């Protein structure tokens, strides 16, 4: 008569299985905890200060050691609290930078102008040795999906917003450039309109800019860098991507378009491109892509 009782598995096999299932359980718990913290907890307001060396001394060595703060995509709205954005501004001021640069999307949507006024008032708190300069982002244009229908109204609102920012100490560069006198040496800042809205005119913006003088370019959408190869764009600062909002190879394709430049530093021809992850958000998801304040030190 055959014995149908199966022999017990070796102890080593039992231990391996136990460790495997324990690892799966802990990994799942860790993932879910991080997702909860990032999406519904502190993640969307967990600011990271990123220090970046900007190797531009070959262009102009006299600016070595200069510190520049860069913020982007504030998205002042019902979703992004005023108190949080004030903390961001205070954090920038604590850095005591020589210059502050902003790359657009100050608001998300604003039908009555309340959020435009609110963000302009907040930005009046910015402090730096040489001021604050900005370009526009696609959301700053208002109802850009209906831009042809409401063109005059949109332009009037945009003009008032730019004037309001100027009155509060932030100079908006819309397809134009300014030259700053930094201890007797010229530093060009070029601001471009949004490429997505066909308000992108580098020929006008770079007119008068000298190729042998250091030039920093403010460009909300990094896609536009491909059209700057014929201009003296030594460093291009961008935002827009929110670090792909979800920095995961599995989740990101589901919620955002594929982009070449997601976040961080990139070499594009002779230019250095840096993509800031932004401070605000226009959706509830922000997984593994902390809000960012970038501090460049020119080397």
What's the structural domain tally? 2
Fraction in helix: 25-40%
The rough form would be described as globular
The tally of helices reads: 6
Largest sheet: 6 strands, mixed
Class based on secondary structure composition and strand pairing: alpha/beta
Report strand order across the widest sheet: 1-12-2-3-4-5
Return the CATH architecture of the largest domain.
4-Layer Sandwich
Which CATH class of the largest domain is shown? Answer: Alpha Beta
| Uncertain parts | 33-42, 252-256
Number of DSSP E strands: 12
Q: Taking all residues together, what is the mean pLDDT?
A: 84
Tell me the span between the first and last alpha carbons.
85 Å
State the order of secondary-structure elements, H for helix, E for strand: HEEHEHEHEEEHEEHEEE
Q: What's the CATH H-level superfamily name of the largest domain?
A: Metallo-dependent phosphatases
Strand content: 15-25%
What is the CATH T-level topology of the largest domain? Purple Acid Phosphatase, chain A, domain 2
Protein model, in words:
The protein is α/β, with parallel strands linked by helices. It has six helices and twelve strands. The strands form two sheets. Strands 1-12-2-3-4-5 form a six-stranded mixed sheet. The N and C termini lie far apart (85 Å). The model is unreliable at 33-42 and 252-256 (pLDDT under 50).
């Amino acid at each position: 008569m055959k014995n149908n009782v199966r022999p017990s598995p070796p102890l080593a096999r039992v231990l391996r299985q136990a460790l495997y299932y324990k690892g799966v359980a802990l990994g799942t718990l860790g993932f879910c905890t991080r997702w909860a913290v990032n999406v519904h907890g502190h993640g969307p307001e967990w600011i990271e200060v990123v220090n970046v060396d900007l190797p531009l001394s070959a262009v102009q060595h006299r600016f070595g050691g200069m510190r520049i703060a860069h913020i982007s995509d504030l998205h002042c709205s019902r979703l992004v609290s005023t108190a949080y954005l004030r903390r961001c501004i205070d954090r920038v001021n604590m850095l005591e930078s020589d210059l502050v640069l902003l790359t657009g999307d100050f608001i998300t949507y604003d039908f009555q102008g309340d959020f435009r006024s609110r963000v302009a008032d907040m930005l009046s708190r910015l402090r730096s040795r040489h001021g604050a300069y900005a370009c526009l982002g696609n959301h700053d244009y208002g109802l850009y999906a209906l831009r042809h229908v409401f063109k005059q109204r949109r332009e009037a609102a945009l003009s008032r917003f730019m004037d309001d920012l100027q009155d509060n100490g932030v100079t908006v560069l819309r397809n134009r450039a300014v030259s700053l006198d930094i201890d007797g040496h010229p530093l060009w800042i070029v601001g471009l309109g949004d490429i997505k809205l066909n308000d992108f005119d580098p020929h006008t913006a770079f007119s008068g800019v000298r190729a042998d003088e250091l030039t920093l370019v403010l460009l909300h959408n990094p896609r536009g860098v491909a059209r700057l190869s014929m201009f003296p764009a030594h460093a291009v600062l961008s935002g827009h991507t929110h670090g792909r909002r979800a920095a995961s190879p599995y989740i990101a394709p589901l919620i955002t378009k594929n982009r070449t430049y997601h976040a961080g530093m990139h070499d594009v021809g002779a230019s250095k491109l840096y993509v800031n992850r932004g401070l605000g958000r226009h959706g509830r998801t922000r997984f593994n892509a902390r809000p960012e304040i970038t501090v460049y030190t020119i080397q």
